[in-house]
Amino acid sequence: MTQFTDLGLAKPLLKALADEGYVNPTPIQAQAIPGVMAGRDLLGIAQTGTGKTAAFALPILHRLAEDRRPAPRRSARVLVLSPTRELATQIAESFKAYGRHLGLSVAVIFGGVKYGPQMRALAGGVDVLVATPGRLIDHLQEKSVVLEGVETFVLDEADQMLDMGFIVPIRRIVKFLPKRRQNLFFSATMPAEIEKLTGEILNPNPLKVTVTPPSTTVERINQRVLFVEQQRKRALLAELFDDASFKRVIVFTRTKRGADRVARGLEQVGVEAASIHGDKSQGQRERALAAFKAGDVRALVATDIAARGIDIDAVSHVVQFELPNVPEAYVHRIGRTARAGADGSAVAFCADDERNLLKDIEKVTKQRIPNFDRRNDRHLGAATAALPDTGGKPERSERSAQPHRQGHQKKPNRNHSQGKPGHRPQGGPARTEAGGGERPAFKGPRRGGGQRSGGGRSGGGSRSGVWSNH
Ligand code: AMP
């Protein structure tokens, strides 16, 4: 098996990888790093969780270290575009962690925060700039950022950019880049519009690496669909939390208002919950994420866009309060659990009017999602009392509804299985049963590197929306 030491990376990078405890590159890293180190363009078809960030950050840092020169003023040697603020922050943190022994500078800029600190951080130039497209365009228009000096351009999560309407801004940004440059292009899926964009951005004959088709992640996740009337969903969700195994749960809703409503509903029954979505301020989003990572809230209620790309380990369950309109989003949602090779559980609520969405999801994922079966799904705790018992038989078709793994079975909690909808037998705060003082580790790159200008809160990002380590 390939080891990082086989790839010819600069010594300070190997030291940082050893600090992280990484020995073997993931498949995308093993396939991408040598070519990118040699200066080739890359088309990576990969989603988060595959190690794609290090697959581009390591060879980029290597090239910067091998060819040291001052960063151009109001500019950067490397530009990384990310669709969301959270992902931008995570990427910058990865660069900082892997580059901690190299003394390079990294800055991140995104919207929703003041311009001044970002302008100041960029004035003298930085080695690596991670940005979201909207705010970068603002800076380009103000000429507080120029892109002539960029040597390497990374476009991350291109399909998410498309979903968020960023394709036009990206085309505008690319026009500011010098013609001669290295391009690294990542997307989890390849819709036609993205395929077209690859042709516009990449140099001819890029290195192509495809890893982890969605089904691989899908297979590691214990999935269930629960058929439930729309108006019973909130009570059912509360009941799920009666089971102590629902330790750290991301709940997906279709709308921002829905996310707030669901979070409030959980709080009302004693489950600590926070919501994140596009209408929340940067500070609110950071605080919610930090509290979730620290285990202070059991439930993070999120919309798709807010949650995409967030890398939080040890998410025990993903609950889809509503099914997504786009079937691919189902795969991204359940991928929030089962991170870093771990198993995870995903529960999808399906009301009558969502059955067509479920069919589409099953078509795209080429699987049948087993429906709830009282005998085998006792780990769902109190929920078992409230759901129709299908007796393990398929409710919707002739095919088997047997679960494809047994690993999550637990003895039923009698208290819970007697529970009435909305009734919480334990009464007390759910947090104690959820592991109390235990603080599950965030397994992303450790933040040993430089200082943030925005204060030392955990959870990524700074209030000013910019930090750098010179
Ligand atoms: P990504 O796909 O970039 O979001 O990475 C997913 C997770 O895997 C992150 O928490 C990384 O810190 C972690 N990771 C990346 N590369 C490795 C590796 N070679 N060995 C172990 N963990 C890794």
UniProtKB/TrEMBL annotation:
Residues in Helicase ATP-binding domain copies: 33-208
GO CC list: cytosol
InterPro entries, alphabetized: DEAD/DEAH_box_helicase_dom, DEAD/DEAH_RhlB, DEAD_box_RNA_helicase, Helicase_ATP-bd, Helicase_C-like, P-loop_NTPase, RNA_helicase_DEAD_Q_motif
Location of region: Disordered: 369-470
Motif annotated as Q motif, chain positions: 2-30
Record field: catalytic activity: ATP + H2O = ADP + phosphate + H(+)
Family matches, as Gene3D superfamilies: P-loop containing nucleotide triphosphate hydrolases
CDD domains reported for this sequence: DEADc (cd00268), SF2_C_DEAD (cd18787)
Segments forming domain DEAD-box RNA helicase Q: 2-30
Gene Ontology molecular-function annotations: ATP binding; hydrolase activity; nucleic acid binding; RNA helicase activity
Composition bias type Basic and acidic residues, residue spans: 369-380, 392-401
EC code: 3.6.4.13
Superkingdom, natural source: Bacteria
Compositionally biased spans, kind Gly residues: 447-463
Listed Pfam families: DEAD, Helicase_C
Biased composition annotated in UniProt, kind: Basic residues: 405-414
GO biological process: response to temperature stimulus; ribosome assembly
Family, similarity comment: Belongs to the DEAD box helicase family.
Name of the protein in question: DEAD-box ATP-dependent RNA helicase RhpA
Organism, as annotated: Phenylobacterium zucineum (strain HLK1)
